[in-house]
Amino acid sequence: MKRWIATLVLAALFAGGALAYEHVRRMALVGAGYVAKEVCSCVFVGGRSLASCRGDVPASMDRVQAEQLPDGVRAFVTFFAERVASYDPAFGCTLR
C-alpha cells in the first residue's frame, strides 16, 4: 500500500513538473521574442549599441539574454527558449 501511494505521489510530482516546465517555456518564448524584436529595432533602426538598448527593456526581462548577430539579434533564456529577430532595410526587424 505504501509503495502504491509513493508511486502516485511521484507520478503527480512528475506531471506537475512537466506542466510547470511547459508554462515557463511558453513564457520564456514570449519574453525572448519581445527582447529580440525590441533590441533589434533599437540597434539596427535606431543606430544605438546593444548595451544602450538593453536599458530600454523592462527589468522584468533581465533573465533574457541578448546578443547581436551580423543581421539581427538573438535573445534567449538558457534551457527554455530562443528567438531571433532579423533586420531587413525595407521592412525593419522581424522575428524569424
Question: Can you put this structure into words, describing what you see?
Answer:
- With 96 residues, this protein is an alpha+beta fold.
- The protein has one domain (2-95).
- It has two helices and four strands, in the order ααββββ.
- A four-stranded antiparallel beta sheet has the order 1-2-3-4.
- The protein is elongated.
- The N and C termini lie far apart (53 Å).
- The model has no long low-confidence stretch (mean pLDDT 92).
Structural domains: how many: 1
User: Fraction of residues in helices?
Assistant: 40-55%
Mean pLDDT: 92
Q: Which stretches are poorly predicted, pLDDT < 50 over at least 5 residues?
A: none
Biggest sheet statistics: 4 strands, antiparallel
Secondary-structure-derived class: alpha+beta
Summarize the helix and strand pattern as letters: HHEEEE
* Beta strands, count: 4
What is the topology, as strand order, of the major beta sheet? 1-2-3-4
Produce the secondary structure layout.
Elements: H1 2-45, H2 50-54, E1 65-69, E2 72-77, E3 81-88, E4 92-95
Antiparallel strand pairs: 1-2, 2-3, 3-4
Task: Kindly summarize this structure in a few lines.
By secondary structure, the protein is of the alpha+beta class.
Top keywords for this entry?
96 residues, alpha+beta, four-stranded antiparallel beta sheet, 2 helices, 24% strand
